[in-house]
């Protein structure tokens, strides 16, 4: 994994990347607040805490509603917000939310949990393209970062949350709320000049400029793992930025019809990674490598190694893909 000081928001689950365009939350913002049932106020602890400045959420667990969703999006610029989507027809998902609450409390205000009942707030499930509950997605600076779908054990959740905090720190989200939030936060060490240049370019949406800065950093220090991972990420972001919705649909159709079309398979693998379908994306390229030989096979292998850096070389899905790659190569 790269250090918190240099890693942009990734496009894939847990290590996910920048999901610009992958999930549209705009329709959920600034919606009028629905009246509470029977005209009663929200139950204690289920909404923004009383007395919080400017209406800010102060509780570590909040029940997500149309009324407070925008507030949570805004809060994600200060502290990562984990959105746990659950449903009453899935008792196990409600139990997982309670477990997530206990885990979040252990992070002492560096994370906030938003529990969203998709029966009450179905628009949220649609926006996050939820296919099953439970599903967990984080928000960092308003950008969705997929975490997991279908459940996870405590060790997996803590590992994901640790990585989420690294991603958040790389994007300047290092706040803390609740008890102890008044304590002075230590200042993050300054980034190396070329890493700062890359980060500034990412903030401006200039992925080509960020890639140039990371390449220069690697020229000066070839063993710079942070620059290597950053370069792989911004190159992916740049490729995705260049695609329109129409091109995306066409590429998926072409990839399905032409399994040996290198361009189509690599492009759809990018889309899979960006959408959080990490195993699908990596597996797609491994399958192509197993079917083809010559220069195209080597091009696919190099791209696969770059995507390993995007997802994170310590990720279990990368380890599995490496094993599968070894099988088809040898």
Total beta-strand segments: 5
* CATH homologous group name of the largest domain: Glutaredoxin
Unreliable spans are 1-27, 29-58, 179-185
Total DSSP helices: 12
CATH class of the largest domain: Alpha Beta
* Spatial separation of the terminal alpha carbons: 27 Å
Q: Which strand order do you get reading across the main beta sheet?
A: 1-3-2-4-5
What share of the residues does DSSP label as strand, in percent?
Answer: 5-15%
Shape, per Cα inertia axes: globular
CATH architecture of the largest domain: 3-Layer(aba) Sandwich
CATH fold category name of the largest domain:
Glutaredoxin
Helix content: 40-55%
Averaged pLDDT: 79
Main sheet specs: 5 strands, mixed
What count of structural domains?
Answer: 2
Return Rg in Å.
Answer: 21 Å
Order of helices and strands: EHEHEHEEHHHHHHHHH
Based on helices, strands and strand pairing, what is the structural class? alpha/beta
